[in-house]
Amino acid sequence: FFAGTRGVLQASAAACTGAGHWYWEDNVLYIYYTEDPDGAVDIETIKRDYCINGNSKDYVTIQNIDVKGGKVANILLSGASCIVSSVDSSCAVIDFSVTGNSNSIYSSTATSPSGTAFSIAGDSGTFYWNVISGAGGNGLLVSGASNTLYKFNITTSTSEAVDITGNTNTFYYSLLHSNLDDTFVVTGTSVTIYNNVIFDSGAAGLDADESCTFRNNIVRTSTGDDINIANTKTVTGGYNCFEDAAEAGTGTYTDTGTSTLFSTDPEFIDSASDDFRLNPH
Predict the structure, then answer these.
(1) Which of 138, 143, 209, 263 is the most exposed place for a label (fewest CB within 10 A)?
(2) Which residues form the signal peptide (predicted)?
(3) Both 2 and 117 in a single domain?
(4) What is the span of the domain harbouring residue 227?
């Protein structure tokens, strides 16, 4: 809107030849004006904070769509008991922002080139069968409590692939590989992580800054430590397979059944081609 009058979108900047003409490209607004418009005309533009704003509504279902370019997040779930499925999202900030409780997102993809793919601040949600690639920040940031997350495929996140700051969250049955920082960082209490493949971490496979349970995981080819445990913290392990010879840090790793394998190659079929199945022998 120019001085209260709606403008007319043009096909190119060169086509802006009359009053009210405008064109937008690469974050630049082109307008037609016969003098310097700075201070001479009021220009109003629309800012779309969200592609879809749940607006604190409950029992909303969103499925089978593509979303892109929200200024704050692509989808905001601020109500309860909402379902998002089969959504492809690309956002520079946050793909999926969950602040309400008991929500579910599944079978969806997220690419957040300079932000976080999933920000989960709500409690008691269920998130599964999702693919995250190329996040410029965290793949998953979980600050809510008592969420269940499983069957994720998370690759090439710039910051931590999974940053769990909330309490009593559970993460399992997932493949996490080629992430550029720590794969897991845990600062929440009573967190459980099990049955995951963690490969080619840019830093630690697990950075345990709080006591947690970590069982039945394969951790290999970490640039840093496979597992690092902070002072006074305890990781309750069991049936893990590590490439490193021992845990790192000044904390404690407990495995009462001595079932953990250190200095062990799990023998993936072809990890170079992202085939993380194990050789049958």
Answers:
(1) 263
(2) none
(3) no
(4) 50-278
Give the torsion through C-alpha atoms of 105, 143, 76, 94, to 10 deg: -90
Asked whether residue 100 falls in the same domain as residue 13, the answer is no
Tokens of 92: 């520079």
Supply φ then ψ for residue 210, to 5 degrees.
-145, 155
CA–CA separation, 105 vs 8, rounded Å? 38
Question: Which of 43, 52, 39 lies closest to 7 in space, CA to CA?
Answer: 43
Q: Which amino acid is at 252?
A: T
Provide the 10 A C-beta neighbour count for residue 264: 15
In three-state secondary structure terms, 84 is strand
Q: 223-258 pLDDT, tens per residue?
A: 999 999 999 999 999 999 999 999 999 999 999 778
Helix, strand or coil for residue 70?
Answer: coil
> Based on C-alpha coordinates, what's the Rg of the chain?
23
Tokens of 184: 């897991």
Q: Judge whether 118 and 143 are in contact, CB under 8 Å.
A: no
User: What is the tally of structural domains in the chain?
Assistant: 2
Same domain assignment for residues 57 and 27: no
Domain identity same for 146 and 165: yes
Whole-angstrom Cα distance, residue 68 to residue 154? 19
Residue type, 122: G
> 3-state SS of the chain: helix, strand, coil percent to 5?
0, 45, 55
